[in-house]
Structures are given as structure tokens and as C-alpha cells.
Specification:
about 850 residues, alpha+beta, nine-stranded antiparallel β-sheet, eight-stranded antiparallel β-sheet, about 25% helix, globular
């Protein structure tokens, strides 16, 4: 029994790509050639697991025959194909068991036998260690038993059908480091073999019990794990989108975030940062607990309605808060075995985790309504605030120097005293804590904090805005002077709406150009910068995290073109590379992950979810009032979509949105009682709003005008199973484009839309674009009948729609060139009939 069919992803094998199967207590990490390592947290069991096929007199390495990879939330499969046989190897880790199962399904015309080989690597996750270890064969279990001298840590690796083994050895004269299982021959036809791995931190009996349970109950465990993910998806915010790629990416991103929850038997349950193979080391990517990773991911979990995992993550991180209030940066899975918090420099290395803790806690409480948690954690929250205050310099900026790094941890962008990123989250933390204080009944503290927030917000704007360069500085140096380096990190304070609207718009225009925005996401700084390197982890690479920051920020400031391009970039990454996952970091020069990237990075998946829900759809909830805000910037080629299961307090609301030339229609289903809704759809600056009604009766509205668009703003309360809201329009117009990823290893070549400028009367629109010199780009058009004259592009009618063809001039020394497309519109008084 499989998961929802739409969640199956499949393609031809890329042997180098990461492949995994994970649960809350164990994980299999490897690549699509079939070489894997096994973990039962915090214990590494083995590495270099792989198959061989015995056919006649031949011994065939499985990796040479790997043809197709398929993934589902609960498992991953490699299909191997020979001349007369196929083998399907399925890697499965139950959602809540301390072990894994590898199923090997054989279909053959002639006798075939499978051998599974591996190297024992029985060790605790970095930085802990067990010491001397051993293995032995247990014929009754048909399994290798791995152990150590205290007999506390035990693993069992075997197969119910194993008929012959090969064991590692070491002597004075030679040594052999492989263990192997022959699984028994399949004469002809179909057969299935199981390889089972289990471990315990509490002796052999527990490991054996898990081994027998996994062997006996494999099919039921596979079914219940598939159901685990189906249930998870059904209980969080569901979307039905006309963009099939975005649909799959959104669903998989929710799965990927949930797969970041790890239950360590010594430390507790929390969010880890990401997964990668460890090879001969004991560091599986970032598969340990991080503060700031948890908090950025928590914002996406809240948006999707997964409040339980957010609370668990917040509870876990706060448990390790330092006595002075500082929030931890990272907690290794082996932290309890060593002096992690005293003897290692990593536990409290960052300064940004502390303000992000306050921000994430406020977001959780507002969206979930769990004010009791804020009251319970008040002392922890206030201590975090006091630590934040202790980091302020004489100017009033929270410092990185001497208190922990901000975003940038190393490289040529350092040293600095305070990043714009750090000052931005520091200011937002005050607003967050002010609201938490209000909800906790601490009105005096709330007012004090609100005043502090206003001071900090003004200070950030004044301290980092560079009027002559028309952009924000990256940071302040040790002397308090602005460091003039344009960076995507400026979009973090924009995410929270902290920066001046006009200045933020100018900064977004710079960031939207080809030197900052690649086809696969946002560089940390311009590729024209002297300090740029495409492989620089903190000085040139592309992080999906940055891309998500930029997308949410750009939507907040009504810059839907670069916002949608960034949203799609992250979404497409989830369907390429390691299927279903979004990688940690990519080259800033060419479309490929950095060689050190963690291929399944949790906050990268979060940066699909947040830009979709918080950005494009403009969804937010207030559990106290039960209100849902829905302020979408809908792509031009979307005629309809739906949203199910938006929870605000005890209310649950579904929306179905549709658009025609003359109207926006919203169907609202309220599960019970009354559901307050703030509906604020974006339309073009040219559009005229003729009226609004609900179930045939007029609804009050106003029009909020921005430089790039305007929003029809209305508030109503839906009740019963169905209410229909209609916004009547005239003269609406829109242009869009659908971005794509280039071939792997290629440079960027897509279109950038830098700015859109409307005349005050709405009769002219100028798009400033940037594209590969000599290239042509197609853009869908909505309301093409509104156009009287066009400069810098051509219109082509295809089927039932109209396409704009934009040609970028060739020549010059730059790989990219700019152009303007100018739309002159018909007089609004001309009727559609007379136009035709």
C-alpha cells in the first residue's frame, strides 16, 4: 500500500545523488548507486552497504545495473536491471522504530542469488565515541551482532533467509574489513528477501526484540508508515494548485520538514538540521539539533498548521538555554557523552538564535493560540531578552563581535560588529516579546517592549540605509561604519516588514538582477563583488534559505515577479537532485550543489512552504480572534486553486479561489460556527473594482494602493458549509512568467523582471527586464485586450491565450543585458464591445 500517487517521484538513476529513508529514531543514508550507511540515533551501525548478484558463473555489482529510482515519503527504491532479471531494492525506516528494513524483490528467468556486503562502523555520532567494538555471527538470528565491551550498545544486522556469511577479520599477516550475507537463491520467477537492522542503547535483548519485530511485521510497518505521512499531510494545510510541479514540491516540503523530527533517547525529541552521508567519519551532514534552523523551520510548520512539532522543537531548544539566557546554536546527538556545553566551542556559537527564539515563540503562540505555553516559558523568554540587551553596543545595535556570529560564520565578509540581519531579527524580537507579554497579561512590560521596538526599527533604517548607493549595507564594521556590500540578507528584516517601503523597493530591484538572482536562487552577494566566489560558503554560494527569505520579503513588499521566480526556484529544487528534498547550498556560478552540501536540509524545505503560504498566498491566522487573513498575489496563469484546513483557534476554513476577466470569486467553507476572514486579493494598478458581495449582498471594501499593485481589502464572517464572495472587476491586466532550472552544471540563462512602474493614471506600464544577451523569452498575458500599443516586445496569440515575446539585445561585454517593455493601454472608457 503506497502513499498518495502524486507523491511518487521517479527518474533515471544518478549514481552520485543522495538517497535516504528516515524515521524519528533511525536513518539510511547513501546514494542512488545503492551504497548506504545505517544509523540508529545516536549510533552509527555500518557503512558501504551494497548488493551483488550471482547469475550463473557471473558476479555482477548492483551499482552497474542501477536504472531507476523511485521515492515515497516512507521509503525509497532502486530498480536494477540485467539481461534476464530485475531487482527492486527498497530502503525503509519505520516512523518510530529503532531500526531499518531493506526489501529485495527479485524477478528472474534463471537462478539468481543476492549478496549484501557492508563494513562495520559501530560508533557514536560525533563528537562522542564508544571505544573498542566487535562483531560475531549468531546462527539462530541469522544475523551479525555488533557490540562493545560494556554491552550497552548493541546492533543486529541480518536476514531471515541468510544461508552463508563472510566475516571481517584482522591478523598479524592480513586483514579484511567486509561482512557479507548470501540471501538464498531464487531459482526462477519472483521472490522477496529482507535484510533487517536494529539497535539498542540498552543491551542485546532490546536490540534482538526490535530485530524480530521488524522481520516479522515489515509489511504492517510499511503500511502504517505510509499512513503516518498520509495522516500528517491531511492534518496540515492542503493545497490544490494548477501548477503540478509546485503542488508536488509543496507536499514533499511538508514531508521533508516532518522528517527532520528526531527522537534521541538521551537528549529528547527535536528538529535536526539536515541529512548527508558521513563516509568514514561520524558526522551525517547536519543530523543534530540546531537552534536557528529549528526556528526558521518553525515559521513554516506554523504556516502549515503543524503546531505540535513546533512546540516540540521550541521545548527542546529551550531546555538547553544557557544560564545567562543565550539560546543554543547546536546540540550534537552525542552531546550527553562529552562536555559539549563546556569543552566545545559550538554549543552557543551564534548570536541570532536568541532573538529568533523570541520570534518563533510569538509566531507559534499567535497562530496556535497556545498562550499557556508563553506563560509557562515566560522566565525563559525574559532571560533571552536580557541576554539580547547585553549584546547592544553604545549605538544601540545588537553585536555579533564578542557575542556570537550572525548569519555569516566565516570568510572575507568578516569581521563585522553587527550585521543588518542580526539587527533586524533583534528588533523584531522586541515586537515579538511585546506581544507575548500582552498575551501573558504583563501589560507594563508589553508597552515598554513596544516602545523599544519602535526605537530599534528606526535605528536599523538609519544605521544601514546608504542613500547615495540606494541600498542597505551588509553590516556595520568594528568602528560602527556601514559596510557597503549589497546582500540578500537584507531581505530578513523585510520578511518582518521592518524596512522603509521605498528603500526596500530599491534594494529589491538590485537583488532581482542577474548578478544576485540565479535561475536556482539567490546568491549571498553579487557576482560582481570583489569578495565573491561561486564556491564560497558564506561569500558567493546560493542557499535555498536565502531564496526563501527573498521570496517572502518580496511578496510582503508587493514585488511578485522576483518573489515568484524565487519561489519556483526552491520548488523545482525539491523535484531535482535528491528527489523530494531541497539541498543546503549550491554553487553561485553553476547549477549544482556544492560538494559539501547537505542534500536533505530541513530549513531548505521550509523555504518552499513559507514562500507559498506566507508569501504568494498571504495566509496568516490569529487564533485569539479566530481570524484568517488571505492576501494572495496570484500568478497570471492561475484561474483557480483551493486551500483546505486553515486552522485559526477552533475554526477550520477551506477556500476555493477562481478568477475570470470580470471577477474574483472566493468560496469559503467554515467547518463550524463563524469564521472571520480578512480577504485582500491583489489586482493590477489598472484594475477598477466595481463592487463586492457575499452571497448576493454587498460587502464593504476599500482599495489599498501600492506602487506595483493594489489590494481589495474586505472583512467578513463566513458561517455554514458554503459562502460565496465575489469581487467585480474591470480593466484588470497582468503579465507573468514561468521559470525553469537550467541543465545541471550550466550557468543562469533565465529572464529577470527587475521592476514594474505604473503611470499615476494606470494607462502605462513599464517593465524593466534583464536576460541573457541575444535571447528571447515568452511571458503569458492576462487582459491583452487592454493593450493599445507595445514597445520592446511583441504579442503572439496561441490557442486561447496571448503570449508576450521579449527579445534581449545582443552585443556588449555583459552576458546579461537589460531592456524595457512599455505597455500603453486603451482609455478606460472604451468598452470591450467597441474594442472588438
Amino acid at each position: 500500500m503506497r502513499s498518495t500517487p502524486s507523491l511518487e517521484l521517479s527518474r533515471a538513476v544518478r549514481p552520485w545523488e543522495f538517497l535516504s529513508a528516515v524515521g524519528t529514531r533511525a536513518g539510511l543514508f547513501g546514494n542512488e548507486s545503492g551504497r548506504m550507511e545505517a544509523w540508529v540515533y545516536p549510533l552509527k551501525v555500518l557503512r558501504e552497504f551494497h548488493l551483488q548478484f550471482h547469475v550463473g558463473e557471473r558476479l555482477l555489482p548492483a551499482e552497474a545495473l542501477a536504472r531507476t529510482v523511485l521515492v515515497w515519503p516512507e521509503s525509497s527504491t532502486i530498480v536494477y536491471s540485467g539481461d534476464t532479471f530485475t531487482v527492486r531494492e527498497t530502503f525503509f525506516v519505520p516512523a518510530n522504530e529503532a531500526g531499518a528494513v531493506i526489501s529485495i524483490e527479485v524477478e528472474t528467468e534463471e537462478p539468481l542469488e543476492v549478496t549484501a556486503s557492508f563494513q562495520r562502523d559501530f560508533q557514536l555520532e560525533w563528537p562522542a565515541a564508544i571505544g573498542g567494538t566487535y562483531e560475531s555471527w549468531d546462527p539462530e538470528l541469522h544475523a551479525f551482532v555488533l557490540g562493545e565491551e560494556t554491552k550497552k550498545f548493541v546492533a543486529v544486522v541480518g536476514s531471515p533467509t541468510a544461508v552463508e556469511t563472510r566475516e571481517e577479520y584482522q591478523t598479524n599477516y592480513s586483514e579484511y574489513h567486509w561482512n557479507a550475507l548470501r540471501l538464498g537463491a531464487t531459482p526462477k520467477g519472483r521472490d522477496r528477501k529482507l535484510i533487517v537492522m536494529a539497535a539498542s542503547m540498552d543491551g542485546r535483548a532490546a536490540a534482538e526484540a526490535t530485530y524480530r519485530h521488524l522481520s516479522r511485521d515489515y509489511e504492517e510497518l510499511l503500511r502504517t508508515s505510509a499512513e503516518y505521512y498520509r495522516k500528517y499531510l491531511s492534518e496540515t494545510v492542503n493545497l490544490e494548485l494548477p501548477d503540478a510541479q509546485l503542488q508536488q514540491a509543496y507536499d514533499w516540503a511538508r514531508v521533508s520538514m516532518a522528517q527532520g523530527m528526531v527522537n534521541n533517547p538521551f537528549l529528547g525529541k527535536g528538529l535536526i538540521a539536515g541529512y548527508r552521508t558521513s563516509g568514514t567519519s561520524a558526522r551525517p551532514g547536519f543530523a543534530w539539533f540546531f537552534g536557528r534552523d529549528s526556528f526558521w523551520t518553525a515559521l513554516a510548520l506554523d504556516a502549515a498548521g503543524d503546531f505540535a512539532n513546533t512546540r516540540t522543537a521550541l521545548e527542546f531548544v529551550s531546555k538547553y538555554q544557557r544560564a545567562d539566557g543565550k539560546i543554543p546554536h547546536e546540540i550534537a546527538q552525542g552531546a550527553n557523552f562529552v562536555g559539549w556545553f563546556k569543552d566545545f566551542p559550538y554549543a552557543y556559537a551564534s548570536a541570532d538564535a536568541t532573538p529568533l527564539y523570541l520570534i518563533a515563540m510569538n509566531d507559534y503562540v499567535v497562530e496556535s493560540g497556545d498562550t499557556a505555553f508563553a506563560v509557562e516559558k515566560w522566565d525563559s523568554l525574559w532571560k533571552a531578552y536580557e541576554f539580547l540587551l547585553s549584546t547592544y553596543d553604545a549605538q544601540g545595535f545588537p553585536q555579533n563581535s564578542g557575542f556570537g556570529h550572525g548569519w555569516v560564520e566565516g570568510g572575507p565578509l568578516l569581521p563585522v560588529k553587527s550585521e543588518l540581519y542580526q539587527s533586524g531579527v533583534g528588533a523584531e524580537a522586541l515586537r515579538a516579546l511585546s506581544n507575548l507579554a500582552r498575551l501573558a497579561g504583563k501589560d507594563d512590560a508589553s508597552k515598554q517592549l513596544a516602545q523599544g521596538f519602535q526605537r530599534q526599527k528606526a535605528l536599523v533604517e538609519k544605521g544601514f540605509w546608504l542613500a547615495e548607493e540606494n541600498r542597505y549595507a551588509f553590516a556595520l564594521d568594528k568602528d560602527g561604519k556601514a559596510v557597503d556590500e549589497a546582500s540578500v540578507l537584507a531581505t530578513v528584516p523585510m520578511w518582518f516588514g521592518l524596512l522603509d517601503k521605498k528603500n526596500a523597493g530599491a534594494m529589491i530591484t538590485q537583488l532581482a538582477d542577474f548578478d544576485h538572482q540565479t535561475d536556482w536562487g539567490m546568491r549571498i552577494l553579487s557576482d560582481r563583488a570583489a569578495k565573491f566566489s561561486g564556491g564560497g560558503y558564506h561569500y558567493g554560494s546560493v542557499w535555498p534559505l536565502f531564496t526563501g527569505w527573498a521570496s517572502v520579503a518580496e511578496y510582503r513588499y508587493h514585488r511578485a515577479f522576483p518573489a515568484y521566480a524565487n519561489l519556483r526556484a526552491n520548488s523545482l529544487l525539491a523535484l531535482d537532485g535528491s528527489l523530494g528534498h531541497v539541498t543546503e547550498v549550491l554553487s553561485g556560478d553553476y547549477y549544482q550543489p556544492l560538494s559539501t552540501s547537505s542534500p536533505h536540509q530541513i530549513w531548505s524545505a521550509a523555504m518552499v512552504v513559507s514562500p507559498v503560504l506566507r508569501g504568494m498566498l498571504g495566509l496568516s491566522t490569529d487564533a485569539q480572534s479566530g481570524t484568517v487573513t488571505f492576501a494572495p498575489h496570484v500568478p497570471v496563469n492561475w484561474n483557480s486553486f483551493s486551500i483546505q484546513g486553515v486552522h485559526a483557534g477552533t475554526n477550520s476554513t477551506d477556500f476555493t479561489y477562481s478568477k475570470t476577466e470580470d471577477a474574483i470569486t472566493l468560496q469559503v467553507n467554515c467547518a463550524s460556527g463563524t469564521c472571520p476572514v480578512d480577504f485582500e486579493p491583489a489586482v493590477s494598478r489598472r484594475a477598477e473594482v466595481l463592487g463586492a458581495e457575499m452571497n448576493g449582498r454587498p460587502v464593504a471594501f476599500k482599495v489599498a494602493v501600492n506602487d506595483e499593485d493594489k489590494h481589495v481589502v474586505m472583512r467578513f464572517s463566513a458561517s455554514g458549509k458554503s459562502s460565496t464572495v465575489k469581487v467585480r472587476l474591470r480593466n484588470d491586466f497582468a503579465v507573468g512568467y514561468v521559470s525553469s532550472l537550467p541543465p545541471l552544471g550550466s550557468a543562469s540563462r533565465g529572464l529577470r523582471i527587475l521592476s514594474e512602474t505604473w503611470s499615476p493614471s494606470g494607462d502605462q506600464l513599464t517593465l524593466q527586464v534583464s536576460g541573457a544577451a541575444g535571447s528571447a523569452y515568452e511571458m503569458p498575458v492576462w487582459g491583452a485586450g487592454e493593450i493599445q500599443k507595445l514597445e520592446g516586445a511583441e504579442l503572439e496569440r496561441r490557442g486561447g491565450g496571448t503570449t508576450l515575446l521579449v527579445k534581449i539585445p545582443a552585443g556588449g561585454s555583459e552576458r546579461y543585458a537589460r531592456a524595457n517593455v512599455v505597455f500603453h493601454f486603451l482609455d478606460k472608457g472604451i468598452s470591450k464591445k467597441s474594442r472588438n
